[in-house]
Design brief:
Layout lengths: L14 H8 L26 E7 L3 H4 L4 H11 L3 E7 L3 H9 L18 E5 L6 H10 L15 E5 L15 E3 L3 H18 L3 H11 L3 E2 L4 E6 L2 E7 L37 E4 L1 E2 L9 H5 L4 E2 L2 H15 L3 E5 L9 H12 L5 E3 L3 E2 L6 H5 L8 E6 L3 H6 L6 H13 L4 E8 L6 H16 L2 H4 L4 E8 L16 H18 L4 E5 L2 H11 L5 H10 L13 H10 L4 H5 L19 H14 L17
Parallel strand pairs: 1-2, 1-3, 3-4, 4-5, 9-12, 12-13, 14-15, 15-16, 16-17, 17-18
Antiparallel strand pairs: 5-6, 7-8, 10-11
């Protein structure tokens, strides 16, 4: 046995308490029982490293996530490591856990989270942050890293938000930037080394910071501020880097992929075999953080994807195979792959699913390729109705290609479409907003030339959120008044056209404002997050739980304004709160930024009440 944080800890199993004091009193006990088909359960007391993989949302959402199963598979493949799952308890379960003082536990062994060496979080969205704090608190662990004891588990986080993690830096011991497959193995081996050598908690983190260029340990770095601006960012330990790189899986063809998916007991959002066929995106949509941060482009061969899909299906019985990537239409072996999958799965009544597609000249292939698939609906991310705006955001889509693709889909048997649009893009006018309805109307009536009917289109409208590590990260978000006006305009135009076949759904505006404020925030946002959580903020991605008033008050308590933060613009020479955290070089992003400015030509019919964004 060794002194310090990385000791072999006592494992506390509380299964009897869970069964007796929690499960009979919650609405969906199956969220908390574990034991699903293909679950992995090891003897935690015999492992050199134990990891609680936490997804900061409810079971049904977390079980649909593609990242957690990969890490679960990789860690449990290591003989001396055990990984178990934890999800955010819903509000009814939280109330019982707190009332009866039951610590939060893992699903597999019902071990308390404080029994684990590592508590790992996947950060998928800015609005999951209060759930992270809630999980730690329910586990009896201080939410602030500076207040934790030497014997507390290390708290580690990864996922897409790790690339803009400063708002969470006061709560997390170490961030893993980039892709986790190789990084999690290297980090696990380092922590086992630390444990066997008896290193202190601080020394373990310092060694990770020195050894890995994708490991960001906030406690070894300081910022200096001048009002809202960052004046400097520096390391407090000699020899530490101040610029980090994303971890990258070089051999994506042979990257670990689980072929025994867990089969959930509660109906998940997505219950399917999910196979990632490509990583990275050939496009450079200037609003998309993933397309700039997940580089380079890598493919799995059609043969490998087919074998993974087949093995996963036979281990789970799911009736859908989903081909995942940022742009599936750009997968070079798509036709060959779909033909093989159809030949094998059609007789088994297993359907194929593809995510929202980047529309370009290749999309016309998709309806032909998927002629034998159940046609519940085809999803297309159009983003902007005007070709001029698509050029500015670097989404090379021509109307002629869009109409040809949709007409082909109707001919192949699709009856419904789902289209994604974004409002508030640089140089957008109210005429551009109105054009969204007109474009959708034309696409719906296009079906009449195929079978005499009108297409049914669901239209999802989101509000533009400037994202870190993108060329638009310097821009302000439009004010709330603009979004209110745009929403009314879309509804009025639909009524004017009597387009009952168009169903518009608008993203929650307050959530988008908070996302813009938090996503580009710096370390000073920690006080805001903790205050909001202590005042009851939970499940901020859920409309029925989200309380914008709590967040306004939390920002005000920190002498900040949430909407001013969302509408903040940055100068090209500013030190950005995220520029050290992986992602492309700043100079490269600024070339895209300049290209966007060059693409903007003042439209002749621009509404004078809606000026072009001043920052661009």
């Amino acid at each position: 046995m060794y002194n310090g944080p990385m000791t072999y800890r006592k494992i506390e199993i509380i299964a009897p308490r869970v069964e007796r004091e929690l499960l009979p009193f919650v609405r969906k006990p199956a969220r908390y029982i574990g034991g699903e088909v293909n679950q992995v359960r090891k003897d935690l007391s015999r492992c050199d490293l134990t990891v609680a993989l936490c997804f900061p949302d409810v079971y049904e959402i977390g079980m649909s996530n593609t990242g957690m199963p990969i890490l679960y598979h990789i860690l449990n493949q290591m003989d001396n490591v055990a990984a178990e799952r934890v999800f955010s308890p819903w509000t009814d379960a939280e109330a019982i856990l707190r009332q009866r003082k039951i610590p939060l536990f893992s699903l597999e062994s019902k071990a308390t989270l404080s029994s684990f060496d590592v508590i790992g979080f996947g950060l998928t969205n800015e609005l999951c942050y209060t759930n992270v704090l809630n999980i730690l608190d329910l586990a009896g662990i201080n939410v602030r890293r500076s207040s934790r004891s030497e014997t507390d588990p290390l708290v580690i986080a990864g996922g897409g938000m790790a690339n803009c993690c400063e708002p969470m830096a006061d709560f997390i011991d170490l961030f893993v930037l980039g892709e986790g497959e190789d990084a999690v193995v290297a980090l696990a081996n380092l922590l086992i080394e630390a444990k066997t050598q008896g290193w202190s908690r601080r020394d373990s983190l310092l060694e990770a910071a020195r050894r890995f260029d994708w490991a960001y340990v906030p406690q070894f770095y300081q910022f200096e501020y001048d009002g809202p601006r960052i004046v400097s960012f520096r390391a407090t330990e000699p020899g530490l880097r101040t610029r980090f790189r994303n971890a990258v899986v070089e051999d994506f063809e042979n990257a670990p992929a689980p072929v025994r998916p867990l089969v959930p007991f509660v109906e998940a959002v997505h219950e399917r075999v999910s196979i990632e066929i490509m990583r990275g995106c050939p496009g450079r949509c200037r609003f998309c953080q993933a397309s700039f941060c997940r580089r380079p482009i890598r493919y799995r061969s059609a043969e490998k994807v087919f074998e993974l899909a087949k093995a996963s299906y036979h281990a789970s019985g799911f009736d859908t195979v989903s081909l995942l990537s940022l742009s599936t239409a750009d997968y070079p072996q798509l036709e060959e792959l779909v033909v093989r999958l159809q030949e094998y799965f059609e007789s088994k009544h297993v359907g194929l699913s593809i995510p929202s597609l980047r529309v370009d000249q290749q999309l016309h292939l998709v309806p032909k390729l998927f002629t034998s698939v159940r046609k519940s609906g085809l999803t297309i991310a159009v983003e902007a109705a005007a070709e001029r705006l698509r050029q500015i955001i670097n989404k090379p889509l021509k109307d002629v290609d869009l109409f040809a693709a949709v007409e082909g889909a109707y001919k192949a048997g699709w009856e419904k479409l789902k289209l994604y649009f974004m409002v508030g893009l640089p140089s957008e006018t109210l005429d551009d907003v109105k054009a969204i309805v007109g474009l959708c109307h034309r696409l719906a009536t296009l079906r009449r030339g195929v079978d005499g009917k009108t297409g049914s289109i669901n239209v999802a409208v989101s509000w533009f959120v400037p994202k870190p590590h993108t060329p638009f990260g310097w821009l302000p978000q439009r004010p709330r008044e603009y979004f209110d006006q745009a929403r009314r305009l879309i509804i009025d135009e639909k009524l004017r056209l009597r387009a009952k076949f168009l169903m518009f759904k608008f993203h929650e505006m307050d959530q988008s404002i908070l996302e813009a404020a938090m996503g580009r925030g710096d370390r000073r946002c920690a006080d805001v997050i903790e205050t909001a959580w202590r005042r009851g903020a939970r499940f901020d991605l859920w409309n029925d739980c989200f309380d914008y008033a709590i967040w306004r008050e939390a920002f005000s308590h920190a002498q900040m304004d949430v909407e001013a933060a969302a509408q903040r613009s940055f100068a090209a020479g500013d030190t950005l709160p995220w520029e050290h955290l992986g992602g492309p070089e700043k100079t490269y992003l600024l070339t895209h930024y300049d290209s966007a400015k060059e693409a903007i030509a003042p439209p002749g019919d621009a509404d004078p009440a809606v000026p072009v964004d001043p920052a661009i």
